[in-house]
Each structure stands twice: as C-alpha cells, then as structure tokens.
Amino acid sequence: MSSNVRPESMKRITTAEQANAFIEEQIAAVRAQVGDKKVLLALSGGVDSSVVAALLIKAIGKQLVCVHVNHGLMRKGESEDVIRVFGQQMDANLIYVDATDRFLDLLAGVSEPERKRKIIGAEFIKVFDEEAAKLGAIPFLAQGTIYPDILESLNKGKTIKSHHNVGGLPEGMAMELVEPVKLLFKDEVRVVGEALGLPHSMVYRQPVPGPGLGVRCLGAITRDRLHALREADAILREEFEKNGLNEKVWQYFIAIPDIKSVGIRNEDRYEGWPAIIRAVNTKDAMSATIEEIPYPLLHHITYRITHEVEGINRVLMDLTPKPIGTIEWE
Predict the structure, then answer these.
(1) pLDDT at residue 284 tops 50
(2) Which of 14, 77, 196, 254 is most buried by its number of CB atoms within 10 A?
(3) DSSP 8-state code for residue 88
(4) CA neighbours within 13 Å on the CB side: how many for 267?
C-alpha cells in the first residue's frame, strides 16, 4: 500500500478472518519492499507500534530491530510488558535502553509544561539516534502511522494537527519508511493485533501522551513524587479494570501537583500531595465529558491510594469538562 489514500473499495477490518487476510497481504508487501535488509522500529509499547512490531516479526523475523527507550516516565509495568512480550515470548531482536537518569536529570527544576515536552521529545530522538548509529546503516524505518494521523495532518492540504510520523523523514535521513498499518483506523489496528496474538491488555492499552507521566507529575518533576504518581495511577487502572470501567471510560489517570497539605497518619501530622483523578469520555478529543464513578468505588480507590502510596494524603476528583478544561492538565 504505497498511497496515503485509503481506497473506497477497502472494507473495514472487523473480523479475525479479515484481519488474517490483511496480515498475509502485508507480509508479502513488506518482504517485497525490504528483501533481506534490516528494518528499525522505535517500539514504545503502545498499540500501533506493538502491532507493527508483531506483524514485521511475522514477516521478516530477526531482520527487524526494535528499540525500546524507557525515559523513566512510563506507567508502572509498561517497559516490563514490552520486554516480556517481545523480548521473551516473541524472541524479537529487541534493544532495551534504560535512559531514566538521563531524562530526569535534564528535567530537574523544569516546571513549564511546553519546555518539559520539548526536552522529553528532543532527548528521545537523541537516544534513538545514538542506538541506531551503533547498528550501522539500516535502510528502512518502520512506523506505527495509522490513517487518522494522515487525515489530521494532510486534510485537503490543510493541517488540523501535525503528527511526528506523517510527512516523511527528517531532512538528511536516507531511510525508507515501512508503514504496514497506515491505512487502518485504530479499531482495525486492534483487531489485527489480536489476530497476531498480542495480549488483550496491550492491544487495548489506554493511550498516554508521548511525554508519559511527565505531564501528569505537574510542575517540576521530582523522583519521589513521580514514584507516588506511578503507584497511584497503577491502583486507579487496576480498580477500573476490575470494575469494568476500563473499556467504558476513554481516558482515566492520576495527576499530582507540586503542593502539599496537612494530614494525619498514625496519629501524627503528615504532609502529603493530593492525587487528582480525571476520567473523561470523548468522541473526537475536541470536547470531553466527565464519567460518573460510583461513590463506593471512589471511596475504595481513595482508601487504597492513601494507605498504600507513600507521600499522598488526599484524593480529589476533577469534574471539569472540556472546554473549559483540557483532557490532560499540562
């Protein structure tokens, strides 16, 4: 599929049979494109890059080199899942880079949200480029571009929202793109992912912004508050999954601001941060409504977070729709 335009005759992929036919078609296309050459892929662990990785492993095996960069801002267990699924179960040619200290040192004392985003984005490219340089010349770069990325970036010549993986390669790079799912919508990518045998939890992994927890640890990031955020967010996700809210709510997460209040623990004064729950539903991310969470569940989540997570002494609920709020806090 060399065109960026989805043919009108292309049927939506909704069944395992259709997904398997698509997979076989793309395996043939990838093999014809890359031959016996190597392909490089930045594997974040998100659904798009994970599906591309699984498809390319099926097509070209060890010719695919996956690089997973842990910038220290991942949610709990995400990097471990990538290593377990791709490095162990699929026996992928996987390079794992733990760059936690590198990123957190650069972010120390930085509170302005856009500056944080730029630091994280720029450093990620540096780390990826450094790892790619160690491998020598690789002629192909795989990306998890999907059709909405193309539509938003190139809508009748007018850009709605630019995507980093649309519009070609950076100037000076000679690598050719491999984009096997670029004509699929997100729901189709998930069907293909399940047909490829990826875990349901990975295929339906909740989206997270590129800077990860870096834009949910509000203000200047500190390691202790980041750790508290990661643990509290894991409790929220666990409870939503146990109570069937994980596929009912579009986006749910914890944010922790850089403020403390007085609380009581073990009959002593205890200063801690507030954990703020945000749970929203949306059709297009341009507006969002608040999902109502049953009070008994909120009480249970509050108890768990305040008793299991060091540094948090309050749990709050963000009830602001978009607009006037945004989906993320930063």
Answers:
(1) yes
(2) 254
(3) I
(4) 0
